[in-house]
From TrEMBL:
One of its GO terms (molecular function) is dioxygenase activity. Its cofactor is Fe(2+). It comes from Undibacterium flavidum. Keywords: Dioxygenase, Oxidoreductase. It comes from the Bacteria. Gene3D superfamilies: q2cbj1_9rhob like domain (2.60.120.620). Pfam families: PhyH. The keyword Oxidoreductase applies. This is Phytanoyl-CoA dioxygenase family protein.
């Protein structure tokens, strides 16, 4: 049996201020995660979700993940837009592009990699995924990125509203990134259910206990690519499940000179890093003046999110 974990259910989540990059990085290396409190303005979160609602209502080019399948446009089932779980919204939303490499994220990634980080993909959630405990290490494989150093994979989880057990707060397993573990493609015949069942047993055998991450709007949680985490079960007794709006971003250290490997995508530089953009959306990349950005954000705040 592998070395036992000693962090257990008594583990207390330490929080850092956005300027405490070095201390947060040391904590990340030790525990596999770190949390920055009040790392971005909740008003920006509200504005972004207003834009999400506008995109769902008016943009047929959005991509949705539903029960393991990807849908776009008129082929999207009603549940796809009701959930929703949107893939790569940064190809459509300027506010998403602002969030994925916002200053605390860009600075942390630079400290982690020794160079600017690259956003590989994003997932936008309205509700808890309720996804069982898993590691991202082999699951994040956008074809336009191609092979990359999986040991550099990291994720940020941006709290767009408060989370608790009622709306399915994240469950994290501190220290779980340190021990080797089987992946989805290691003897499970690519059965996600078989993989997660094995991982539940692995966590118990190695003494890992889940810790609930109760977030406030503006918090950013980073986790290591091989860190075990789960979407908490929604425990509210209400017939209408409460929302737990969030933005998940995956990053890696990609050589600066490496372009997209898919002609339908381009690698785009932003202050603090880069990301991958659908080519057909490139017109949205036209720079805005400071006043145009203010007007855009105010307009987004005035929009009512879909389904609320």
């Amino acid at each position: 049996m592998a070395e036992q974990n000693n962090q257990g259910s008594e583990h207390v989540i330490q929080r850092f201020q956005p300027q405490q990059i070095d201390a947060a990085l040391a904590y990340f290396n030790e525990h596999g995660y770190c949390v920055f409190s009040k790392a971005f303005d909740p008003a920006l979160a509200k504005a972004f979700w207003g834009d999400v609602g506008h995109q769902i209502a008016h943009n047929e080019r959005l991509s949705y993940s539903l029960y393991g399948k990807i849908y776009q446009g008129p082929n999207t089932p009603p549940d796809g837009k009701k959930l929703p779980r949107i893939i790569d919204i940064e190809s459509h939303s300027e506010l998403a592009r602002e969030l994925i490499l916002i200053s605390p994220i860009a600075k942390f990634l630079h400290a982690l990699y020794g160079c600017p980080g690259t956003c590989l993909q994003t997932l936008t959630y309205k509700f808890s995924s309720e996804q069982r405990a898993h590691s991202d290490k082999v699951l994040v494989s956008p074809p336009y990125v191609g092979p990359y150093d999986r040991d550099t994979l990291a994720a940020s989880w941006l709290a767009l509203e408060a989370s608790s057990e009622a709306n399915g707060a994240l469950i994290i397993y501190p220290g779980s990134h340190k021990l080797p573990k089987r992946s989805l493609f290691d003897g499970f015949e690519e059965s996600y259910e078989a993989y997660t069942c094995w991982l539940d047993t692995w966590l118990q055998e190695n003494g890992f206990t889940g810790v609930t991450f109760r977030a406030e709007p503006g918090d950013i949680l980073f986790w290591h690519g091989d860190f075990i985490h789960a979407g908490g079960a929604i425990q509210s007794p209400s017939d209408t499940p409460p929302t737990r709006k969030s933005l998940v971003c995956h990053y890696a250290r990609i050589p600066a000179e490496q372009p997209s490997l898919d002609v339908g995508w381009s690698r785009v530089s932003l202050p603090g890093g880069s990301y991958y953009q659908r080519v057909q959306e490139s017109a949205e990349q036209k720079p805005r003046s400071f006043m145009q950005r203010i007007k855009f954000r105010m307009a987004s705040l005035a929009r009512k999110p879909i389904g609320t």
